[in-house]
Amino acid sequence: MKQNAVLRRSPAGAKPLRHRFAGALSRYRWFYLMMIPGLLYYVVYHYIPMAGMIIAFKDYSLGKGIIGSDWVGLDNFRIIFNSPDFYELLRNTLLISLYRILFNMLPDVLLALMLNEVRILWFKRLIQTVTYGPYFLSWVIVYGLAVAFLAQDSGIVNYYIRELGGSPVNYLASNDYFRPIILLTDMWKNTGFGAIIYLAALATINTELYEAAVVDGAGRWRQLWHITLPGIRDVFVLLLILKIGHIMDAGFEQIYIFLNARVYEVGDIIDTWVFRRGLEELEFSIAIATNLFKSVIGFILIIGANKVAKKLGGSGIW
Amino acid sequence: MKASKLCIPLAMILAFALILGACTSENKNNGGNTSTSENAGSTGTGKTDGEDSGEERLKLNWFVSSSGDAVLPEGDADFIGQAIEEKFNVDLNIQYMPGGGDFDSKISLLLASGDTPDLFTAAGVASQKFILDGVTADMSPFVTPEKMPNYFKWISKTELERYAVEGKFERAPLIFPREVYRSYYIRQDWLDTLKLQMPTNYEEMIKVMDAFTFDDPDQNGKNDTYGLTTVGNGTSLSFDFPQWIENGLIGALMVRDNKYVDVQSDLAVEQVLQGIKDMMKKGTVDPDWFLLKGTEHVDKAVGGKAGIIIGGSKTFAFDSEPTSIQNKTLALNPKANWMPFHPFAQTGTWTENLPDQPFMFSRETAEKNPEKIDRIVQILDWMASEEGFLLINYGIEGKHYTRSGNTITVTQSNQDAYRKDVVEQGNFQEVYRFFYLHNPEYEPLGLEVVDERMSDRDRQITQTIQSYKLYPSIGTNVAPPVGFNLADFRKKMREYQVQVLFDEPDASNWPKYVEELLTKYGGQQMIDTYTEQIKAAGVIK
User: Fold this and answer.
1) ipTM for this prediction
2) Which of A234, B37, B250, B489 counts the highest number of beta carbons within 10 A?
3) TM spans, by residue (chain A) (predicted)?
4) CA distance B111 to chain A (A)
């Protein structure tokens, strides 16, 4: 740093800049070379395809291609915002996303903290393995399980309700139960896996801190409050910011499988709409326009959240 | 030092090579069975003594929908592909996948990338989009009675004309079955136990359903059976409910009093909804029906939970079909006997079939290499001929069937040979059978098939179902107006239907919902457009 500052003030100011660049380039040439495949990957597969987004402003026709299709300005966006159910979709998307942030991040942390307190190593490993197992199941299987438990006629839960003299409830087709079921199954499937990141963060906390706290007379709760939680705060904030950036994605795969006509009112989200409209009806322009809209919102939120996180004293993502 | 300097670039080259390798191998997968057909092609090049020996050998790319279990085999097991390549002097490269969302995406991708297959199939909605987008070729120089005499034995000229999209003759229907095998099936053994007669009309059917629910037809002492089971896929009001036809609503689209009727959003649906509501309240229909998906209702019927179910295929309850509902139920209950019936057998059980999926030609190929399309037309016409039909659907004569006059006989040993040569070779016939949708029928060719495995009961079932009366169809394929969002309209319609069905005290709100569907969701616009199209076809005045 200091050296740089000295260089900048050196008399031959104009030339060295290029020199320095060339120098750095040759000095770290292998590193730069090694970066190329990675960069190429991003350019080829992530940046060049972005040009395709222009069809959000076009009436895309397969025959005319991306370049040749007619420009329609903001018509596609008008269609989206004027479609009668759009605000219901938006509301469902945001609500489900917010619930997910709330009810999925906290259990992750909780499980990690509890595992962290377990002293018997084999038991800890066992629990960890058992809890992240469901992560590898597909949503179709999880839905199958949900049906086995909750179906109105053949589900276990309703079987007991009937045996005990109650009247069966059609949980999977109920506006009241749809979102809780989505969140519970999500929690069941993903909590074990989500805890791993926090466990990793917990493992990096210097054990001397705990020893020092014990010497100072801190109990378990005090240690938790003053050492453990601050230790994972950065990771938590990082994940929170990332999740906020994805607030317009309410989990297509899961919702698509769980959704049925009786719960459209609380469960139909933007992505399922895009699926119906964009893929089933082949209206690519509408699909792209919606995703562009989603991305812009996500982008703004992620920048905003990062700023807020930095203001509040923590560190953001960058 | 030197060694390490060399190492880094080498490692990088290696890494790069790996990435590239991954890419190319992926391409190969996407490309379907390029290598296979090339193999087959090279065996054929030696002997160009086929019909078109004078013409140059052409390379043709096809993209067709097939059943999920079909795979073109390596080597020379594929006798159909070989026959085509030798006969027509072509290298055939067929890509295939099951129809559905993935198929539509893949073909759209191929079309968008300019890598258009010379011949491709598509679902109805997608084909309209392709035609309006201008990627398909005008078929008038190619698909003519002169060039395709055999094809026109299956599909009439009127059907072809009415199948056009906005007056453009750029798609033609794949050969589709004329017979409709949709029928109710009932547990005859339950009827016998309860000493009931086979129902012949709506009222009797409802009575039998009541008896199946409350009178313990399986005699297990528990109240655990239902009259009817069906599948709602979590979205829709199944057409399996007899209340539809009882209230004069048949099929998905129909003409009533010289007017087009969108069946599912019609005002008469109010009575349908009320009828189903009453039935659900009584508890004679499987309460899980709405959330059941795919064929889960069949499993329930097999498990002895319900006594009536609708089957759509010819072999649904055959003895000779190992996976039929009859054989599956027999495995659990040796007395089970599923027999067909229809409460509306005399008046009309369904509408006649309309052309289903089309095949289309690439516009690019038609402009640059019209000779390729000509050759494809020859191949397709051969596929529609008796020779092609038999090879594609029944295999090789003498080996997989025997023939005397117009009678085709399939014995058990023929069937075993077929299993060995075709089914175990990837069931590859299904790939070529893209040209014949669903159950290919032999009647239009004047053939008769004697399948020795079929039992008398099977023949009786076929006879019963073939005796059902059908309503005429709306006579033409229709396309929704440009800009109209069919998906949103249907979604809202279904939402209202299930709301009435499950959450409201009666169906009296339906007319209000229909009003909203017609105005706010553009339904009237759709009905008007369909009406015009049907008028243009001359079906209504």
Assistant:
1) 0.73
2) B37
3) 30-48, 94-115, 136-161, 284-305
4) 7
